[in-house]
Amino acid sequence: MKTAVLFSGGKDSVYSAYLAKKSGHELTYLISIFSENKDSYMFHTPSIEKTKKQAEVMDIPLLIFKTKGKKEEELNDLEKAIKTAKEKYRIEAIVTGALHSIYQSSRIQKICDKLKLKCINPLWHKNEFEYIEELIKNKFEIIITGVAAFPLDEKWLGRKIDKDFIEDVKELNKKYKIHPAGEGGEFETFVLDCPLFRRGLKVVNKKISGEKNSWRMEIEVE
C-alpha cells in the first residue's frame, strides 16, 4: 500500500515509518507541517526544518506544508496537505506516530475517513517502556531537543535515549508522573540515525533558548 508518513523528525514519526515499512507498506512520501506556533497542539516544532536532511538520507520525497498553528484551525491546513498528497501523489494511506494522544489520533482519523484513506497507527497504545527499549534495540540514535515539564531543564537537551535515559525517566515517572515516551509533551526528540537512513546525521551547531523548565534546542545537522 502506498503511504505518506506524517513526519516530524522525532522518534514517534520515524519509528512508525520503520514499523510500517517492516509490515510491507511502501513509504512513498513524507509530509512535514511547518508551524509558526512553537506551542502547536498538533505539530512538533523544534528543528522541524531539519526533516529535509532526514528525507535526503532516507531517499524519500518530502512534502512540506505550512500553518499558522492556531488551535483547531491548523487541522484545516493538515487536511489540505493530506488531500494534496492523495490527489497529486496517489497515496492510499497515512502513517502516524500517535501513541496515546486521543486529541491527535481522533482528528487525523477523522480527516482520513473524510478523504477515504486508511490511517495506520503502528504505535497506538504500545507500552511506553517497551517502546523506548525497542528504539535502542533497533539502533535508533535519538536526542532530546526540547523539554517542557518539571523537573526537566536545559541539561536534558542533547541527551541521547539510551539505557541511562530509561533508568532516569523511570524514576521521573514514579516521582512526577513524567511520561517515559514524552507523550504529554514533556520532551521532544530528533532522530540522527536509524535503519531507514543511508547514513547517520551529525549535529554541527545548536542554539539553546528557554527558562525554568521549558527549553528548546534548535540544531543544524549534516
Which terms summarize this structure?
9 strands, 222 residues, five-stranded parallel sheet, four-stranded antiparallel sheet, 6 helices
Describe the structure.
The protein is an alpha/beta fold and 222 residues long. 34% of the residues lie in helices and 27% in strands. The strands form two sheets. Strands 3-2-1-4-5 form a five-stranded parallel beta sheet, with helices on both faces. A four-stranded antiparallel beta sheet has the order 7-6-9-8, with no helix packed on it. The mean pLDDT is 94.
Quick rundown:
The protein has six helices and nine strands, in the order E-H-E-H-E-H-E-H-E-H-E-H-E-E-E. It has helices at residues 11-22, 51-58, 73-89, 102-115, 128-137, 163-176; strands at 2-6, 26-35, 62-67, 93-95, 118-120, 141-148, 187-193, 203-211, 214-221.
Gyration radius, rounded: 16 Å
What is the CATH architecture term of the largest domain?
A: 3-Layer(aba) Sandwich
- As for the CATH topology of the largest domain, it is Rossmann fold
- Domain module tally: 2
End-to-end distance: 31 Å
CATH homologous superfamily designation of the largest domain = HUPs
| CATH level 1 class label of the largest domain | Alpha Beta
> How do the strands of the widest beta sheet line up side by side?
3-2-1-4-5
Order of helices and strands: EHEHEHEHEHEHEEE
Largest sheet: 5 strands, parallel
Task: Report the uncertain regions.
Answer: none
**Amount of beta strand:** 25-35%
- Give the overall pLDDT as a whole number: 94
Structural class: alpha/beta
- Overall morphology: globular
How many alpha or pi helices?
Answer: 6
Number of strands: 9
Helix content: 25-40%
